[in-house]
Specification:
By secondary structure, this protein is mainly alpha-helical. 82% of the residues lie in helices and 2% in strands. A two-stranded antiparallel sheet has the order 1-2. The relative contact order is 0.10. It is found in: Cell membrane. InterPro entries: GPCR_Rhodpsn, GPCR_Rhodpsn_7TM, Prostanoid_rcpt, Thbox_rcpt.
Length: 381
């Protein structure tokens, strides 16, 4: 406002005399104060966005590597010792998912850690370089792959539970490997779209990660790219939700009908796989839905109108979304580590033993108290 006032006074005033000097001084001071305020505001936002710095990034990366290796060893051991074809197909899908999560945690995590250590937090408006292009493509590729794999696993299990004969004739190891190759190829094609100028990758706030351009100077290609990425991700989660619901309801109804013992043993494997699929689906929904939804909100708002004061809000939403998404590779392995029949059986045995122990001690206490009361009554007589 001081600047505007100064330009008006200089055009209608007497000239650069003593009367215009105070206004010039005030104008320079106001501009300096505004610049300092903008820099300090940006510094505060950068420090908030990169809280924890390399230590947090390195810690989460280490946890993800350890958990994924443990889950991969468990799945590989189960795959080599299990001869059921339906179970082997599920374990092949699950092992591929864990390997993808492992690579998706190491590759982008290493690049983010390098940005933290080498350049700190560069300006979000920095032009994207090759590192940014590769990091953005990696995040899109390793973001879509787990969602596609979870969807394929849910469809395979739904077919195995509801149509076992059709599943036995259609699902083979060769077709499973072909399906895995198609999933990775589809995700790679989507990630490479910016190479054909269909969308773009850019540094995101606070400058330590790269993703699809969703804020500031967005074009129709950027909007289409975000719609494609988020649409594929949300569609995969929706299909997995429907298939897992159908599988779960079918297994519950089968249990209620009280089949023969052979069918019960066969259904126990299906129950274990469906429980793990539900765990994968819940984890993916919690971790990936915010980033998919926030990306859609940001790009549509940025393309339809200028973000203005809401720009910082959308930046923080994107940071929150990518932090939740990074936890998907850390939590996924725990689904296979904890939701196994051996672990669940031990937990059930521990809980039942405790209840039996309580019951036995209660019964012993009742018997001992009854005997002591009888002795006291006999002594009195």
């Amino acid at each position: 406002m001081f600047s505007m006032h100064h330009s008006n006074s200089s055009s209608h005033g007497p000239g650069p005399g003593l009367g215009s000097a105070p206004f010039t001084l005030l104008s320079n001071q106001s501009q300096g104060m505004a610049a300092v305020a903008a820099v300090s505001k940006r510094g505060n936002l950068t420090s908030e966005g990169s809280a924890g710095g390399p230590f947090v990034a390195g810690l989460s990366m280490t946890l993800g590597i350890v958990f994924n290796i443990v889950a991969l060893v468990i799945l590989a051991n189960a795959y080599t010792h299990h001869r059921r074809r339906s179970k082997a197909t599920f374990l092949l899908f699950a092992s591929s998912l864990v390997m993808t999560d492992f690579a998706g945690h190491v590759i982008p995590g290493t690049l983010v850690l390098r940005l933290y250590l080498c350049r700190g937090a560069p300006a979000p408006l920095s032009p994207p370089d090759r590192l940014c292009q590769f990091l953005g493509g990696s995040m899109v590729f390793f973001g879509l792959c787990p969602l596609f794999l979870g969807c394929a696993m849910a469809v395979e299990r739904c077919l195995g539970v509801t149509r076992p004969l059709l599943h036995a004739s259609l699902v083979t190891t060769t077709r499973t490997k072909l399906c895995l190759s198609s999933i990775w190829l589809l995700a790679l094609c989507v990630a490479l779209l910016p190479c054909f100028r269909l969308g773009a990758y850019t540094y995101q706030f606070p400058g330590t990660w790269c993703f699809i351009k969703v804020l500031e100077d967005t074009r129709q290609a950027d909007v289409a790219f975000v719609l494609l990425f988020s649409g594929l991700g949300l569609a995969s989660l929706s299909i997995a939700l429907v298939c897992n619901t159908v599988s779960g309801v079918t297994l519950v109804l089968a249990r209620l009908r009280k089949k023969s013992s052979t069918h019960r043993s066969a259904k126990s494997h299906d129950i274990e796989m469906v429980v793990q699929l539900v765990g994968i689906m819940v984890t993916s929904c919690i971790c990936w839905s915010p980033l998919l939804i926030f990306g859609l909100m940001s790009v549509t708002h940025s393309y339809s109108s200028s973000t203005g004061e809401d720009l910082e809000t959308y930046k923080m939403l994107m940071v929150m979304g990518v932090r939740l998404a990074s936890w998907n590779q850390i939590l996924d392995p725990w689904v296979y580590i904890l939701l196994r029949r051996a672990v669940l059986r031990k937990i059930c045995l521990m809980t039942t033993r405790r209840t039996d122990l309580r019951g036995s001690t209660f019964r012993r206490w009742e018997v001992s108290s009854l005997r002591s009361s009888e002795k006291k009554a006999a002594n009195k007589i």
